[in-house]
Design a protein that fits this description.
Low-confidence stretches of chain B: none
Radius of gyration of chain B: 18 Å
Largest sheet of chain A: none
Chains: A mainly alpha, B alpha/beta, C mainly alpha
Mean pLDDT of chain A: 85
Number of strands of chain A: 0
Structural class of chain B: alpha/beta
Structural class of chain A: mainly alpha
Oligomer: heterotrimer
Strand content of chain B: 25-35%
CATH architecture of one domain in chain B: 3-Layer(aba) Sandwich
Shape of chain B: globular
Shape of chain A: flat
Order of helices and strands of chain B: EEEHEEHEHHHHEHEHEEHH
Number of helices of chain B: 10
Largest sheet of chain B: 10 strands, mixed
Order of helices and strands of chain A: HHHHHHHHHHH
Largest interface: A-C, 97 and 100 residues
Distance between the termini of chain A: 49 Å
């Protein structure tokens, strides 16, 4: 059997194969190990927060009562962002996919992508120095005329640095996410469905409500969820724009705080227990965004299975 | 420079599915052997086992022996890379490397393996291979242009030149003309006729006229039904298969009553 | 869909001309155009809305913003009501939706235009050779006060931040690109959807959703365990940015490798080429333009990140070219600190000017990277056709 000439030719260069596939495998495993190790380190660093005397935690009543208001603040800011960005983002996606002239559509999509390319600190600076002062008259008007609603309770902030301003800046930042994902889904709508609707004499809007939106609903939901994930974790817009304070219902007064901004504002001077607290807050933020992202991806995955779009 | 292939009791599996069952066949050196049969009968699958290309598909494996001049391709310790450098393959759709020039495409088998080759050797190898593929006169002025700029038939001949350049013993062709127009097909068929003076050629084809035109011997594969394995039904001189087959199914197929 | 649109346009146009009074004979009205608003009606409504908007804006104290808002509201309402009256409620609803969709797009352009305009307007005056090639080393509040009082040019620049940005991003790229590309190669060429490949895909997804500040904490925690709790330097920031960059690189490389036709791999194997040479010499070169543009976009994304730098690289006023030691500044953190803690608390204008100039610099970098990505994608794409 050793006379096999093919075998005698040997297997020169097989080492290269082994090294390369090993390197590829190693890189993949490195990602897993890093994530795992770092999660462990993060937990270790955060641990003192949970074991320490509650009186020593900022606020003096333990971690739960420290984290609760800023979790709520995070949710408020993200909700404002989504309330604005969802309708506008979907409408912009519809504009690009179904209203704008074909030749312009790709270019318009790129313009919206530019919104996503602008660094967050620049949005923060813009919100701080341009948007916030510009909104002050509107806030005063709201406080005077709608002040009976707790959300618009006065007196309005004189600087405009409120959670509503932060929410608007966040809305600008998540808009491109919602738009680009929705646009992709809209473009996948089966042409036959659209043409069937038009052939029945439907107007363009009826065609969209009859065939495009029902088809795209799961996709839109997951796009909004991914936008939510971004809004929850965004730091700089809030850190720069919001004049922070305790949890309050009014959106147009100074007050409220988000997790990400809390970390960014306090981390540079933090040490010891305060550092652990902030890392623990980061863990909470991570868990929240992780849950939101996983739900979004689960919706996308299910949608893919059924749509046959892949 | 050509060797014969003998296949003994070969079964081909994809994972647990038996795709081709119990093939015994002897392929002559310096001849053209055609595999014909209906779609899905396993002829392409079987062809790929002759240079271990089926292993590229996840789950593909074989039982049995394939002997290249007596050397078993599947003996443990045999490197599939060695096998493939001795038994080349041309595919259904022309697939020149899009990032490479015509010249680099011809030299791909040498260069990709990192072998050093002098410029004069490279030039003469390119010319020899392109002449061998009847393509030299058409491309000699644009060797540095991308290979994807050629017509479909020229691309397929470039792929054949690329295969010849590795100096294989055997060339396997998997429906090499099915994506080509009749004139390009004719050029390839002429080329196959010339190739057999130097190489052992095995060709899978759907086109029975083509099998009749180019091959010396023909093997007919058939399948009993979907989900059943493909089998070698009859193997004989091409003239016999087309004029006087011994199995009824072969006669039905070549006379157009089936498939 | 587009053909219906042109048909509609044609019928409205026909309708419009049939109403022309100069026509010698009353031409037969196209029955398909019956009950449609002529095209000029929309323009008329728009003009009316502008006039009414200006009027109502003047009543409440004229401003461009209120003028635009009032006019838009009046136009949308009047347009859809008139369409409803003339063409029926279905078309009225359609018109309303159309106006709102167009309006949403214009609305989305406002912040983009405003940001770009502001950055250009306020950033350009601050850009000069001094700003580009000097750091903030030794620039104190007293210096800023002096330049405001004497009207002399603002001193201090962003050179140290540019150096920091480039170095940290370079190191992040050096970490992310090999790891990300090799991981993508594993997923596409070796993993074949096995359990490990699925786990890696899942965790890459998890990484995609990590908030940037948490990525910064990740890196800090990692180095805190390795080097002690106050380890803040460039390389920690680079690791934090890698956490954000790797998933983008993996994703884009994976997509690009997947669209390389299998036929090319088979062609290479059939020539007796080894798998790793097939991947490095055939598959990756075929996909390289897409991969390069994906990597460039990933760099563009992380170069503007602020939050992870805040918690990893600290704050510096001087030039530090050593990522393995001492604190480091980057353009985003420079902008942030110039705004939030102006060098001179009494005269913040010099700081604000420096912040906008740095913002302009940063936006230019990001835009160049974005355009570069597009250019790479189109220039180095494999040549097709003849």
């Amino acid at each position: 059997m050793t006379s096999n000439a093919l075998r005698r030719q040997g297997s020169k260069g097989q080492a290269g194969d082994k090294i390369f596939s090993g390197a590829a495998l190693g890189a993949g495993i490195l990602i897993l190990i890093t994530l795992f190790a770092v999660a462990i380190f993060l937990l270790i660093q955060a641990l003192p927060t949970f074991t320490a005397n509650p009186a020593l935690i900022t606020g003096g009543e333990g971690f739960a009562s420290y984290i609760f208001p800023i979790v709520i603040g995070t949710v408020i800011a993200a909700s404002i962002a989504l309330l604005i960005a969802t309708p506008v983002g979907i409408a912009v996606a519809l504009f690009i996919s179904h209203y704008a002239p074909r030749k312009l559509a790709a270019g318009l999509g790129y313009v919206i992508d530019l919104l996503a390319a602008i660094p967050s600190v620049i949005y923060g600076a813009w919100g701080y120095l341009v948007l916030a002062p510009a909104l002050v008259p509107s806030y005063q008007w709201l406080a005077e005329n709608m002040g009976f609603i707790p959300l618009f309770g006065g007196p309005a902030s004189q600087t405009g640095k409120t959670i509503l301003t932060a929410g608007i800046v966040l809305a600008v930042m998540v808009l491109p996410i919602i738009t680009s994902l929705s646009r992709e889904i809209f473009l996948q709508t089966p042409k036959l469905h659209e043409e069937a609707a038009l052939a029945l004499g439907a107007t363009r809007w009826e065609m969209i409500t009859m065939s495009v939106l029902p088809f795209a609903r799961p996709g839109i939901i997951s796009a909004v969820m991914l936008g939510l994930g971004r809004a929850l974790g965004e730091t700089m817009a809030v850190a720069l724009v919001l004049s922070t304070g305790g949890l309050i219902p009014s959106l147009i007064k100074s007050g409220n705080q988000t997790i990400a901004a809390e970390i960014a504002l306090n981390f540079p001077e933090a040490f010891g227990l305060r550092l652990s607290e902030l890392i623990a807050a980061g863990l909470v933020l991570f868990v929240i965004t992780l849950a939101v992202n996983l739900i979004a991806r689960a919706i996308i995955a299910r949608h893919k299975e059924f749509s046959g779009a892949n | 420079m050509s060797k014969r292939i003998d296949v003994k009791d070969l079964n081909v599996y994809y994972s647990k599915f038996l795709a081709v069952e119990d093939v015994n066949i002897g392929i002559e050196a310096k001849s053209v052997t055609a595999f014909i049969g209906p779609s899905g009968c396993g002829k392409s699958t079987f062809l790929r086992t002759l240079n271990r290309m089926h292993e590229v598909i996840p789950g593909g494996r074989v039982e049995g022996e394939v002997l290249l001049d007596g050397d078993n391709l599947y003996e443990s310790g045999v490197d599939p890379v060695t096998v493939r450098s001795q038994i080349g393959m041309v595919f259904q759709r022309p697939n020149p490397f899009p990032t490479m020039s015509i010249k680099d495409n011809v030299l791909a088998g040498v260069k990709l393996n990192g072998k050093k080759i002098s410029k004069s050797d490279a030039d003469s190898l390119v010319e020899k291979s392109l002449r061998g593929a009847n393509l030299w006169n058409e491309v000699k002025d644009r060797l540095d242009k991308p290979g994807s700029g050629l017509s479909g038939g020229q691309q397929q001949r470039l792929c054949i030149a690329r295969t010849i350049a590795v100096k294989p013993q055997v060339i396997l062709m998997d429906e090499p003309c099915s994506a080509l127009d009749p004139i390009s097909t004719l050029a390839i068929e002429d080329l196959i006729n010339e190739l057999k003076s130097e190489f052992t050629v095995v060709i899978v084809t759907h086109n029975m006229q083509q099998a009749a035109r180019v091959s010396d011997r023909t093997a007919f594969f058939n399948i009993a039904g979907t989900g059943k394995p493909g089998k070698l039904i009859e193997y004989a001189d091409t003239a016999t298969i087309f004029s006087n087959p011994s199995v009824k199914a072969t006669e039905d197929y070549v006379s157009g009553r089936f498939g | 869909m587009s053909s219906t649109a042109t048909n509609q346009a044609k019928t409205t146009r026909a309708n419009g001309s049939s109403k022309t009074p100069q026509a010698p004979l009353p031409r037969k009205r196209n029955s398909l155009a019956k009950g449609h608003l002529p095209r000029f009606a929309v323009l008329a409504i728009a003009a009316g809305a502008l006039v009414l908007g200006a009027a109502s804006s003047t009543l409440t104290g004229f401003s461009i913003a209120s003028f635009a808002i009032y006019s838009a509201i009046i136009f949308v309402l009047a347009g859809s009501i008139i369409t409803t009256v003339v063409e029926g409620p279905r078309r009225g609803k359609n018109a309303l939706a159309t106006y709102l969709v167009y309006g949403a797009f214009l609305l989305a352009l406002i912040p983009l235009a405003s940001v770009l305009f502001t950055v250009l307007q306020k950033g350009l005056p601050g850009i000069n050779m001094h700003f580009l090639f000097h750091s903030m080393n030794g620039v104190t509040g007293a210096i800023d006060n002096a330049s405001v009082e004497n009207g002399t040019p603002v001193l201090g620049g962003a050179y140290h931040a540019v150096v920091g940005t480039l170095l940290i991003t370079l190191w992040a790229t050096l970490i992310s690109v090999p790891v990300g590309m090799l991981t993508a190669v594993y997923l596409v060429e070796y993993g074949k959807n096995g359990p490990l490949a699925r786990a890696i895909t899942f965790f890459v997804d998890v990484m995609t959703g990590i908030p940037s500040i948490v990525a910064g904490l990740f890196a800090t925690a990692l180095f805190a365990v390795l080097l002690g709790p106050t380890a803040r330097m460039g390389i920690v920031a680079a690791v934090a940015l890698s956490v954000l960059m790797i998933p983008t690189v993996v994703r884009s490389t994976e997509e690009m490798l997947k669209i390389v036709p299998n036929e090319l791999r088979e062609a290479s194997y059939a020539l007796g080429v080894r798998k790793w040479r097939t991947i490095t010499k055939v598959v990756i070169p075929t996909a390289i333009s897409g991969i390069a543009s994906g990597v460039t976009l990933a760099i563009a994304r992380v170069i503007g990140e602020t939050a992870p730098i805040l918690v990893t690289a600290g704050l510096a006023n001087n030039i530090n070219a050593n990522v393995f030691g001492n604190w480091m500044a980057t353009l985003p953190t420079f902008i942030y600190y110039q705004i939030i803690t102006p060098t001179s608390p009494t005269n913040i204008d010099p700081s604000i000017q420096r912040a906008w100039a740095a913002a302009l610099l940063l936006i230019v970098m990001v835009m160049v990277l974005n355009l570069g990505a597009r250019l790479i994608a189109s220039l180095f794409a494999p040549k097709k056709g003849r």
